[in-house]
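Try it yourself: sequence plus flavin-adenine dinucleotide, in.
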Amino acid sequence: MIHRAPNNPSIMNVSRGGRPPSPHMMIAAPLPEDVSVSFEFFPPKSDATAETLWSAIKRLEPLAPEYVSVTYGAGGTTRERTHSTVTRIAKETSMAPAAHLTCVGASRDEIDQIAQEYWDAGVKHIVALRGDPQEGSNRYEPHPQGYAYASDLVAGLKRIGGFEISVAAYPETHPEAISDQDDLDNLKRKIDAGATRAITQFFFDPEVFLRFLDRARGAGISIPIVPGILPVTNFNQTAKFAKMCGASVPSWMHDLFDALDDDPDTRKLVAASVAAEQCRVLHANGVNAFHFYTMNKADLCYAICHIMGVREDIAT
Ligand SMILES: Cc1cc2nc3c(=O)[nH]c(=O)nc-3n(C[C@H](O)[C@H](O)[C@H](O)COP(=O)(O)OP(=O)(O)OC[C@H]3O[C@@H](n4cnc5c(N)ncnc54)[C@H](O)[C@@H]3O)c2cc1C
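Structure, out:
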């Protein structure tokens, strides 16, 4: 039986449209085949990490994800490695790759050239981001000849080709935004410029996402907003990272991972349980697309997809 977090009132009380939460929701049979998934990878730094990445890609490929995306290092540091990973996915797998591209550290001409190369290589989906500054610098400075914000980049990409463009959204508001409304207005600007999908920053409490979705729909945003799901294996590191991103870590998660610092096997089981439960609650509330931050590892994502009814025999 899948563990139900006892101290998580939001999971237990989540309901939409006046439906009371089913007491059996957490132990129901696999969900119908209306679930679509996508996976995010980061480009490898060495031959050894490339091997890990490619074994994860090959393991997840039979699940027929809608697309798989490859990140662009903070400060624009992985330009070549992102490009070669994306084009290799396009050539050697059956999956549609999406290339992350950021505004950081490059002029508009340089970014346009990268985008043109993707277009020419048949890569037609870009995840367009402002980007974070390079390590060591905590303040974002637009390049003097660059695209300043993601909305400017989306508009630039649209001038190059008919890219499918996904952008970032923040259920708990981007840390630099002056208000929740300002952040939603920014999401709208990105959509007005041509984005057709938003992928969210990770979050842990499903209610956080569902409230954000309600606010976005209330503000007239109708494009798909896909929850970013992070199966947590290293809890302490994730908690630190979450603080930097403005993502909250509920107290029930601290409880669940308590005393497991030296027990990676149990941490993994707990991680799968937490993320699967998160997906199932979201699905029970009408969400049917999920974007997984894989951290270049397949096993947790594969298990969660299995629980969600996304399986090789169904997908192929
Ligand atoms: C799904 C996803 C994938 C990601 N992938 C990567 C990646 O591959 N590489 C990477 O480096 N980072 C990545 N990030 C992190 C992202 O780059 C950072 O969160 C970054 O700080 C903001 O990027 P953005 O595209 O949301 O920026 P924007 O949408 O441009 O917004 C950034 C901030 O600026 C504000 N703003 C926007 N326009 C204006 C304006 N005209 N005037 C004043 N303020 C404005 C917004 O309110 C917001 O606070 C990713 C994030 C997500 C959610």
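One thing you can check immediately is this: The chain has one domain: 29-315.
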